[in-house]
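Good day; I would like, with your permission, to put a structural problem before you. A protein sequence and the structure tokens that stand for its backbone fold form the material at issue. The record follows directly beneath this note:
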Amino acid sequence: MIKKTFAFAALLASTFPAHSEIWTGKASYYGLKGRTASGSRVGGFTAAHRSLPFGSKARVTNLHNNRSVVVTINDRGPFTGGRIIDVSTSAADHLGFRSAGVAKVRVEALR
């Protein structure tokens, strides 16, 4: 019985993430000509986040139009108060907020 209980608990642990990181707040976009903090370049669907590790993925959803995109974290920031993520211009275009400059978004770390 103990083995079955342990197996069931292990199955549940592998099915559900132990810790989900989700933020809601403002996003902006940026484009750099030089290198990012990780040594790579801004382009495609990349983003800057204060704490997510370089190379990790995050789903960014524009809460106004429900469009979402998966970005790769390759820089640190944003450094403007009240913002939780800076996305590349391509990601901002896909999310539909490039002309506005800022959008309310949900950021979900993907594991």
